[in-house]
Protein backbone atom coordinates (compact mmCIF):
# COMPACT_ATOMS: atom_id res chain seq x y z
CA UNK A 1 0.00 0.00 0.00
CA UNK A 2 1.30 3.45 -0.95
CA UNK A 3 1.95 6.03 1.76
CA UNK A 4 0.21 8.56 -0.50
CA UNK A 5 -2.51 7.55 -2.96
CA UNK A 6 -4.41 9.95 -5.22
CA UNK A 7 -7.05 8.88 -7.68
CA UNK A 8 -8.89 11.22 -10.07
CA UNK A 9 -8.36 14.27 -7.86
CA UNK A 10 -9.61 17.62 -9.15
CA UNK A 11 -9.68 21.08 -7.57
CA UNK A 12 -11.24 24.28 -8.94
CA UNK A 13 -11.26 27.89 -7.80
CA UNK A 14 -13.44 30.88 -8.63
CA UNK A 15 -11.30 33.60 -10.19
CA UNK A 16 -12.66 36.84 -11.64
CA UNK A 17 -16.11 35.40 -12.18
CA UNK A 18 -14.71 32.30 -13.87
CA UNK A 19 -13.98 28.81 -12.61
CA UNK A 20 -10.35 27.77 -12.96
CA UNK A 21 -9.46 24.08 -12.68
CA UNK A 22 -6.15 24.04 -10.79
CA UNK A 23 -5.98 20.23 -10.63
CA UNK A 24 -7.52 18.10 -13.34
CA UNK A 25 -7.96 14.36 -12.77
CA UNK A 26 -4.70 13.80 -10.87
CA UNK A 27 -3.73 10.22 -10.02
CA UNK A 28 -0.43 9.33 -8.37
CA UNK A 29 1.16 7.10 -5.76
CA UNK A 30 4.15 7.84 -3.52
CA UNK A 31 5.68 5.04 -1.52
CA UNK A 32 7.14 5.18 1.95
CA UNK A 33 10.78 6.29 1.84
CA UNK A 34 10.65 7.75 -1.68
CA UNK A 35 12.27 11.04 -2.68
CA UNK A 36 9.93 12.56 -5.28
CA UNK A 37 10.07 15.92 -7.06
CA UNK A 38 6.88 17.54 -8.34
CA UNK A 39 7.96 19.86 -11.13
CA UNK A 40 6.13 22.44 -13.19
CA UNK A 41 6.20 26.09 -14.26
CA UNK A 42 4.36 28.90 -12.50
CA UNK A 43 0.61 28.35 -12.79
CA UNK A 44 0.95 24.65 -13.53
CA UNK A 45 -0.96 23.54 -10.42
CA UNK A 46 2.02 22.34 -8.39
CA UNK A 47 1.26 24.69 -5.48
CA UNK A 48 -2.35 23.51 -5.35
CA UNK A 49 -1.16 19.91 -5.47
CA UNK A 50 1.24 20.66 -2.61
CA UNK A 51 -1.60 22.17 -0.56
CA UNK A 52 -3.77 19.10 -1.09
CA UNK A 53 -0.90 16.69 -0.36
CA UNK A 54 -0.09 18.68 2.80
CA UNK A 55 -3.73 18.71 3.96
CA UNK A 56 -3.74 22.51 3.78
CA UNK A 57 -6.63 22.20 1.32
CA UNK A 58 -8.97 19.45 0.15
CA UNK A 59 -9.95 18.37 -3.34
CA UNK A 60 -13.40 18.88 -4.83
CA UNK A 61 -13.63 15.33 -6.11
CA UNK A 62 -11.47 12.23 -6.16
CA UNK A 63 -9.70 10.13 -3.55
CA UNK A 64 -6.69 11.18 -1.50
CA UNK A 65 -5.59 8.61 1.06
CA UNK A 66 -2.66 9.26 3.39
CA UNK A 67 -1.30 6.14 5.03
CA UNK A 68 -4.50 4.37 4.04
CA UNK A 69 -6.87 6.98 5.50
CA UNK A 70 -9.10 9.09 3.20
CA UNK A 71 -8.63 12.83 3.70
CA UNK A 72 -11.46 14.63 1.93
CA UNK A 73 -14.15 14.10 4.55
CA UNK A 74 -12.00 14.88 7.59
CA UNK A 75 -12.81 17.80 9.88
CA UNK A 76 -10.51 20.84 10.22
CA UNK A 77 -9.31 19.52 13.58
CA UNK A 78 -8.47 16.14 12.07
CA UNK A 79 -6.59 17.79 9.20
CA UNK A 80 -4.67 19.97 11.67
CA UNK A 81 -3.72 16.86 13.64
CA UNK A 82 -2.37 15.21 10.48
CA UNK A 83 -0.37 18.32 9.59
CA UNK A 84 1.11 18.40 13.07
CA UNK A 85 2.03 14.72 13.31
CA UNK A 86 2.42 13.33 9.80
CA UNK A 87 3.88 16.14 7.68
CA UNK A 88 6.84 18.46 8.16
CA UNK A 89 6.74 21.61 6.02
CA UNK A 90 9.74 23.49 4.61
CA UNK A 91 9.08 26.72 2.70
CA UNK A 92 11.12 28.91 0.36
CA UNK A 93 10.85 31.91 2.70
CA UNK A 94 11.80 29.86 5.82
CA UNK A 95 8.78 31.20 7.81
CA UNK A 96 10.79 31.57 11.03
CA UNK A 97 9.50 33.90 13.73
CA UNK A 98 12.04 36.74 14.02
CA UNK A 99 11.64 37.30 17.77
CA UNK A 100 12.35 33.66 18.59
CA UNK A 101 15.78 32.05 18.53
CA UNK A 102 16.52 28.86 16.62
CA UNK A 103 15.68 26.64 19.58
CA UNK A 104 12.34 28.37 20.17
CA UNK A 105 11.38 28.24 16.48
CA UNK A 106 12.03 24.50 16.36
CA UNK A 107 10.19 24.00 19.65
CA UNK A 108 7.00 25.73 18.53
CA UNK A 109 5.14 22.80 16.88
CA UNK A 110 6.01 20.62 19.87
CA UNK A 111 4.35 23.16 22.16
CA UNK A 112 1.19 22.92 20.05
CA UNK A 113 1.31 19.17 20.48
CA UNK A 114 1.47 19.49 24.25
CA UNK A 115 4.79 17.68 24.69
CA UNK A 116 6.40 18.08 28.11
CA UNK A 117 9.32 20.50 28.47
CA UNK A 118 11.99 17.89 29.15
CA UNK A 119 10.89 15.82 26.17
CA UNK A 120 10.80 18.95 23.99
CA UNK A 121 14.41 19.71 24.94
CA UNK A 122 15.51 16.28 23.76
CA UNK A 123 13.59 16.50 20.48
CA UNK A 124 14.72 20.05 19.66
CA UNK A 125 18.38 19.31 20.36
CA UNK A 126 18.15 16.15 18.25
CA UNK A 127 16.59 18.05 15.33
CA UNK A 128 19.14 20.88 15.48
CA UNK A 129 21.96 18.34 15.69
CA UNK A 130 20.59 16.60 12.59
CA UNK A 131 21.00 19.81 10.58
CA UNK A 132 24.34 20.75 12.17
CA UNK A 133 23.12 23.81 14.08
CA UNK A 134 23.03 22.81 17.74
CA UNK A 135 25.73 25.40 18.42
CA UNK A 136 23.47 28.13 16.97
CA UNK A 137 20.34 27.38 18.95
CA UNK A 138 20.46 30.68 20.82
CA UNK A 139 20.66 32.75 17.62
CA UNK A 140 17.67 34.60 16.16
CA UNK A 141 16.98 34.38 12.41
CA UNK A 142 18.57 37.78 11.72
CA UNK A 143 21.82 36.43 13.18
CA UNK A 144 21.87 33.47 10.79
CA UNK A 145 22.70 33.15 7.11
CA UNK A 146 20.01 32.13 4.62
CA UNK A 147 21.29 28.57 4.54
CA UNK A 148 21.31 28.39 8.33
CA UNK A 149 17.76 29.74 8.48
CA UNK A 150 16.63 27.05 6.06
CA UNK A 151 18.37 24.43 8.20
CA UNK A 152 16.47 25.71 11.24
CA UNK A 153 13.26 25.45 9.20
CA UNK A 154 14.13 21.86 8.32
CA UNK A 155 14.89 21.13 11.98
CA UNK A 156 11.47 22.54 12.91
CA UNK A 157 9.87 20.25 10.32
CA UNK A 158 11.79 17.26 11.71
CA UNK A 159 11.27 17.89 15.42
CA UNK A 160 8.00 15.98 15.69
CA UNK A 161 9.44 13.07 13.66
CA UNK A 162 6.87 13.17 10.83
CA UNK A 163 7.08 10.42 8.19
CA UNK A 164 6.74 12.98 5.35
CA UNK A 165 8.79 16.09 4.62
CA UNK A 166 7.10 18.44 2.15
CA UNK A 167 9.58 21.01 0.80
CA UNK A 168 8.24 23.88 -1.32
CA UNK A 169 11.05 25.45 -3.40
CA UNK A 170 13.45 24.99 -0.45
CA UNK A 171 16.44 26.37 -2.38
CA UNK A 172 14.61 29.22 -4.12
CA UNK A 173 15.91 31.95 -1.78
CA UNK A 174 19.46 30.58 -1.55
CA UNK A 175 22.63 30.96 -3.57
CA UNK A 176 23.75 27.99 -5.66
CA UNK A 177 26.28 26.52 -3.22
CA UNK A 178 23.97 26.85 -0.22
CA UNK A 179 21.14 25.32 -2.25
CA UNK A 180 23.35 22.33 -3.01
CA UNK A 181 24.02 21.91 0.72
CA UNK A 182 20.28 21.94 1.50
CA UNK A 183 19.57 19.36 -1.22
CA UNK A 184 22.37 17.18 0.18
CA UNK A 185 20.75 17.43 3.61
CA UNK A 186 17.37 16.39 2.15
CA UNK A 187 19.05 13.39 0.50
CA UNK A 188 20.57 12.39 3.85
CA UNK A 189 17.17 12.60 5.52
CA UNK A 190 15.70 10.45 2.77
CA UNK A 191 18.47 7.87 3.22
CA UNK A 192 17.44 7.69 6.88
CA UNK A 193 13.98 6.55 5.77
CA UNK A 194 11.97 9.75 5.55
CA UNK A 195 9.65 10.35 2.58
CA UNK A 196 10.61 13.59 0.81
CA UNK A 197 8.29 15.47 -1.56
CA UNK A 198 10.06 18.36 -3.26
CA UNK A 199 8.09 21.05 -5.12
CA UNK A 200 10.16 22.92 -7.71
CA UNK A 201 10.21 24.61 -11.11
CA UNK A 202 13.97 24.00 -11.47
CA UNK A 203 15.06 20.89 -13.38
CA UNK A 204 18.52 20.86 -11.77
CA UNK A 205 16.82 20.68 -8.34
CA UNK A 206 14.25 18.09 -9.44
CA UNK A 207 17.01 15.83 -10.78
CA UNK A 208 18.24 15.30 -7.22
CA UNK A 209 15.11 13.25 -6.50
CA UNK A 210 14.62 9.57 -7.29
CA UNK A 211 11.55 10.32 -9.41
CA UNK A 212 10.10 13.41 -11.09
CA UNK A 213 6.36 13.99 -11.48
CA UNK A 214 5.70 16.65 -14.13
CA UNK A 215 2.56 18.76 -13.86
CA UNK A 216 1.24 21.18 -16.48
CA UNK A 217 -2.15 22.92 -16.65
CA UNK A 218 -3.30 20.91 -13.65
CA UNK A 219 -2.52 17.54 -15.24
CA UNK A 220 0.23 14.95 -14.72
CA UNK A 221 2.19 14.89 -18.00
CA UNK A 222 4.93 12.29 -17.37
From TrEMBL:
<dbReference type="InterPro" id="IPR015854">
    <property type="entry name" value="ABC_transpr_LolD-like"/>
</dbReference>
<dbReference type="GO" id="GO:0005886">
    <property type="term" value="C:plasma membrane"/>
</dbReference>
<dbReference type="GO" id="GO:0016887">
    <property type="term" value="F:ATP hydrolysis activity"/>
</dbReference>
<dbReference type="InterPro" id="IPR017911">
    <property type="entry name" value="MacB-like_ATP-bd"/>
</dbReference>
<keyword id="KW-0547">Nucleotide-binding</keyword>
<keyword id="KW-0067">ATP-binding</keyword>
<dbReference type="GO" id="GO:0022857">
    <property type="term" value="F:transmembrane transporter activity"/>
</dbReference>
<dbReference type="GO" id="GO:0098796">
    <property type="term" value="C:membrane protein complex"/>
</dbReference>
<feature type="domain" description="ABC transporter">
    <location>
        <begin position="4"/>
        <end position="221"/>
    </location>
</feature>
<dbReference type="InterPro" id="IPR027417">
    <property type="entry name" value="P-loop_NTPase"/>
</dbReference>
<dbReference type="InterPro" id="IPR017871">
    <property type="entry name" value="ABC_transporter-like_CS"/>
</dbReference>
<dbReference type="InterPro" id="IPR003593">
    <property type="entry name" value="AAA+_ATPase"/>
</dbReference>
<keyword id="KW-0813">Transport</keyword>
<dbReference type="InterPro" id="IPR003439">
    <property type="entry name" value="ABC_transporter-like_ATP-bd"/>
</dbReference>
<protein>
    <submittedName>
        <fullName>ABC transporter ATP-binding protein</fullName>
    </submittedName>
</protein>
<dbReference type="Pfam" id="PF00005">
    <property type="entry name" value="ABC_tran"/>
</dbReference>
<dbReference type="GO" id="GO:0005524">
    <property type="term" value="F:ATP binding"/>
</dbReference>
Amino acid sequence: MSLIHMESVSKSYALGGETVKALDDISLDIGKGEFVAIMGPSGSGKSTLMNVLGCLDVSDIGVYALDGKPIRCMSENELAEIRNRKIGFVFQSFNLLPRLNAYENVELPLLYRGIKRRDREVLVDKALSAVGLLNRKGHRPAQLSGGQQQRVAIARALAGDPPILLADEPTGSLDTNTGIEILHLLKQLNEQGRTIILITHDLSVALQAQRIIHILDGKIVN
